[in-house]
Amino acid sequence: MRSVTEVREPFRARLRGGVLAAVALGGLLGGTARYALVLAFPAPGTAFPWTTFAVNVSGSFLLALLLVHVCEIWPPTRYVRPFAAVGFLGAFTTFSTWMVDTDRLLGHGHYTAAALNIFGSLFAGLAAAVLGLAVGRLTAARHRRLDARRGRARRYGRWAR
Amino acid sequence: MIILPAVGAAAAVGAVARYVLDQYVQYRSPGAFPRGTWLINVTGSFLLGLLVGLGARHALPEQVVAIGGVGFCGGYTTFSTFSYELVHLCDKGLVGKSLLYAVSSIAVGLAAAASAFAIGSL
């Protein structure tokens, strides 16, 4: 039972109209981009779903890279994360198609392709996220070095190292 | 091609549903394990399996499957957050949670998709 002294903000206070609009706009663009790619590179019937694979792996790389920039490099913003991370990349990539495609491959007896789809996407997605984090952190470290150099230059004159 | 804007709009609705549900789960039961994304991906896999099953056996129009499946379910579920959360949990030293998250998402998600497809094509 919740204690009577506990003050808790209501859930609705967490939701902001502008943030929801940013998620919706990002989702609109991300979903449209994925569907356009699926139309351009269709995976017919029981073929290996390369398009979804590529979308998911590239989206994982971009999300990790973006989140390092949002959390460690760029000044704080309100709409970048809801628009680009939650909205665009969240809707661009898809988990449900990954599952249903695997089920279809299993249903047609393509067990190797099904296993390849599950483990290939999982490990390629993980590797892409690790790579995105690594690239983002290298950039963050470079920014910190440049900032430190600029700070010294301000303090001791332009050509001081 | 003509339904491209409708698929995009459905993806926008799916993305907002994902954001609101994830925030709600974090509000109700905060914790390191990404329960919100887990629930979203499993329920979305069920819904897509159902739509694809209905389309395959009961002639649910292809456009409805595209708008509801590719649009809504695709926008609702997410792979990028899933893989980011796996790496993020390992980063925090919670390797066991990360492993449990991966295995349970895939096992339950696949079971949800398969059973929903079976129900849809009954």
TrEMBL record, chain B:
One of its Pfam families is: CRCB
Give the activity regulation note. Answer: Na(+) is not transported, but it plays an essential structural role and its presence is essential for fluoride channel function.
Sorted alphabetically, which keywords does the UniProt record give?
Cell membrane, Ion channel, Ion transport, Membrane, Metal-binding, Sodium, Transmembrane, Transmembrane helix, Transport
What GO MF annotations does this protein's record show?
fluoride channel activity; metal ion binding
Q: Which GO BP terms apply?
A: cellular detoxification of fluoride
* Mode of membrane association: Multi-pass membrane protein
Task: Enumerate the residues binding Na(+).
Answer: G74, T77
Q: What is its main location?
A: membrane
Which GO CC annotations does the UniProt entry carry?
plasma membrane
Under InterPro entries, the record lists: FluC
Highest taxon, organism lineage:
Bacteria
Q: Where in the cell is it found?
A: Cell membrane
- Its signal peptide is none
Q: Which residues cross the membrane?
A: 33-52, 64-87, 99-119
Catalytic activity annotation: fluoride(in) = fluoride(out)
Q: Which family does it belong to?
A: Belongs to the fluoride channel Fluc/FEX (TC 1.A.43) family.
- Its job: Fluoride-specific ion channel. Important for reducing fluoride concentration in the cell, thus reducing its toxicity.
Protein name per UniProt: Fluoride-specific ion channel FluC
Tell me what organism the protein belongs to.
Streptomyces echinatus
Q: What gene makes this protein? A: fluC
